[in-house]
UniProtKB/TrEMBL annotation:
This is Endonuclease/exonuclease/phosphatase family metal-dependent hydrolase. One of its GO terms (molecular function) is hydrolase activity. Keywords: Endonuclease, Hydrolase, Membrane, Nuclease, Transmembrane, Transmembrane helix. The chain crosses the membrane at residues 33-51, 57-79, 86-108. The lineage of its organism: Bacteria, Bacillati, Actinomycetota, Actinomycetes, Streptosporangiales. It comes from Streptosporangium brasiliense.
Length: 343
């Protein structure tokens, strides 16, 4: 056979029969598959995050880690760009932008106007079944001078310890629901308190009305729904959050361990109803609060998330926000200075 005939036969062979071309085609397909495998989990996460519902019990546990996922999602556009998969790049950019839009505003002050009325300083702490030394907590109250103190996991012995440590000299009014285990809560105040009926779905969430000079009655709830740590606790968690009062009429403030982050649909529902998160308002919304001791889930350490909040009626201004470490609890205490509309 002549050389030119051999050339014609080789050229006529299909690409799949050419041993040099076939592996190259397979490599291109695998690169495309890899690019989409990187993009897809982030796309699913972003889609679920936008749904205004709990979706599933497992999603309630996972959605708390959205800030970490938003940061990790930046890998997807890089993989798509390096592999030159333009469709994957376009989708990954939309996904990363969506997750960033959910998370980044929490690090930016909202710049809202502050009313000219009286200040209300609020401190909230989960005592981890009353384990926080009463004298240390009272020292923090003495230093920060809150007008209202909301406590979760308040046990009878912790309540008695706080009394002996002198809390009543700083915050003489109280509405207590001291219970054994993690179910108790309380509200203490510098001003007169009218105790309300506690919200009780597994855990007790103490309700009180504080008479703030110059502003009138302010509703306070020491928030602590059940933790959605397993499927049996999920209904209790959902009911405890759903029962929290919505804004309207008198000013309302919710302070405590919500066992939920700003990415949970039930917290977003509260914000849509007219609350604002004090940390979010001051640009501190990514400040983490739990767990500040190692906690494991299915053998893995739980990343630190933000489940302790002070939610205030949108008619209220937020002047400052901060967190404070206390011994013998894995929660950081949260503190906010609010400015109320003048009566």
């Amino acid at each position: 056979m002549h050389d030119e005939e051999i050339t014609r036969v080789t050229t006529a062979l299909p690409a799949s029969a050419n041993p040099a071309v076939a592996p190259q085609g397979r490599r291109r397909r695998w690169v495309s598959v890899l690019a989409w495998l990187v993009v897809s989990p982030f796309a699913v996460w972003a889609g679920l995050r936008l749904i205004p519902a709990d979706v599933h019990f497992r999603w309630v546990q996972l959605v708390a880690f959205t800030p970490y996922v938003a940061l990790a999602s930046a890998v997807a556009p890089l993989v798509a760009l390096v592999s030159r998969r333009w469709a994957a790049l376009a989708v990954s950019l939309v996904v990363t932008a969506t997750l960033a839009a959910c998370v980044v505003p929490r690090a930016l002050p909202d710049g809202g106007r502050t009313p000219s009325g009286p200040a209300l300083r609020i401190l909230s702490s989960n005592l981890e079944v009353g384990a926080v030394p009463p004298s240390v907590l009272v020292d923090l109250v003495r230093r920060l001078r809150p007008d209202v103190l909301a406590l979760q996991e308040l046990t009878p012995s912790a309540a008695e310890g706080l009394r002996k440590a002198g809390l009543a000299t700083l915050l003489p009014y109280k509405a207590e629901l001291a219970l054994e285990g993690p179910r108790g809560s309380g509200v203490y105040a510098r001003y007169a308190i009218t105790p309300g009926r506690a919200i009780e779905y597994g855990f007790g969430q103490m309700v009180a009305t504080v008479e703030v000079p110059g502003a009138g009655p302010v509703g306070i709830v020491s928030v602590h729904p059940c933790a959605p740590s397993d499927e049996t606790g999920f209904p209790c968690w959902a009911a405890g959050l759903a029962a929290l009062p919505r804004p309207g009429g008198a000013i309302q403030v919710l302070a405590g361990d919500f066992n939920a982050t700003l990415d949970h649909a039930r917290i977003r529902d509260l914000l849509d109803a007219g609350y604002q998160d004090a940390a979010d308002a001051t640009g501190d919304g990514l400040t983490t609060t739990w767990p500040f001791r190692p906690r494991k889930f299915n053998g893995f350490d739980i990343p630190i998330v933000t489940i302790d909040h002070i939610l205030a009626d949108r008619r209220v201004g937020v002047r400052s926000f901060g967190v404070h470490l206390l011994p013998d609890t894995d929660h950081r205490a949260v503190f906010a200075e609010l400015v109320l509309p003048r009566r």
